[in-house]
Amino acid sequence: MSGDILSQNEIDALLSALSTGEMSAEDMKAEEETRKVKVYDFKRALRFSKDQIRSLTRIHENFARLLTTYFSAQLRTYVQINVASVDQIPFEEFIRSIPNMTLINIFEVPPLDGNILMEVNPNIAYSMLDRLMGGVGASPGKVDNLTEIETKIMTNLFERSFDNLREAWSGIIDIDPYLKEMEVNPQFLQMISPNETVVVISFNIMIGESSGMINICIPHVVLEPIVPNLSVRYWMQSNKKEPTPEQSILLERRVKTAPLPIVAELGQGQMTVEDFLHLQVGDVISLDRKIDEPLIIKVGNIPKFTGQPGHLRSRMAVQIIETRIGGDEDDE
């Protein structure tokens, strides 16, 4: 009520109710206190802030772009992947939300402890399998246990995709994901407590004419050691890393040993194309510089010094006389 503006009629009705005894001041106060109470579900505890959820979204949007390129190359067809949602829910709710028979990749991400799930919708999984085996990417519409050959094919496909996950997370932590096992029935998963909070990243994926979802489930206990790194402040600091002393020494050493082209220019001249075509041995080309004028010494095609020609130990040489002022400008 404190945030509402009452009309004159509502004020008159309220005063009338107080005067006739239909509503007491205590009732009004109790009603206001009741409105301040918010329902909180302790089974659905929110362990990640909105800032951290946004960071996870950015990471996996990059992962989606990398996966799009990877799957397009592996399946030799048009693939489109984008992040649909990022939510934090109890693990039990995630298990109930996926089909009873689906493709679940269980993998670890050292140095982080614990397992991460990648659930692939059966429609998409069988479409991938059909493409890999030379088909058009059709899905049979039913889910069955994979044969040993099919399991090996799908295992190789997703194991190689973990390189993209490693790259997507490289700005936060260097992980080394590897596939632990592949399961088709989520009821057999006993990873963590049913009430444990997990982050579920859902991707929309389209392969040719087939479409479906891929869900990545990350338990809070896995991300707990790096939760502070998911803040915007960490991202801003990580973009301003100063080089270590070892890196500075190595950079200086490489710069010092980098080769530079140096040219001592005697002068320049101009001629017509007709004169150029009739040049013969013994012809003389006039230059724009006198013989007693210093030479222009260019470093990387930029005039830097002036010098005079000579010889040193039976070799032609140039002695530097002075450094050119404004040596970053051409001497045209």
From TrEMBL:
Its main location: other. The keyword Membrane applies. It holds the Pfam family FliMN_C. CDD domains: FliM. It is a peripheral membrane protein. It is found in: Bacterial flagellum basal body; Cell membrane. InterPro entries: CheC-like_sf (IPR028976), Flag_FliM (IPR001689), FliN-like_C (IPR001543), SpoA-like_sf (IPR036429). Keywords: Bacterial flagellum, Cell membrane, Cell projection, Chemotaxis, Cilium, Flagellar rotation, Flagellum, Membrane. Residues 254-322 form the Flagellar motor switch protein FliN-like C-terminal domain. SUPFAM superfamilies: CheC-like, Surface presentation of antigens (SPOA). Belongs to the FliM family. This is Flagellar motor switch protein FliM. It comes from Sporosarcina soli.
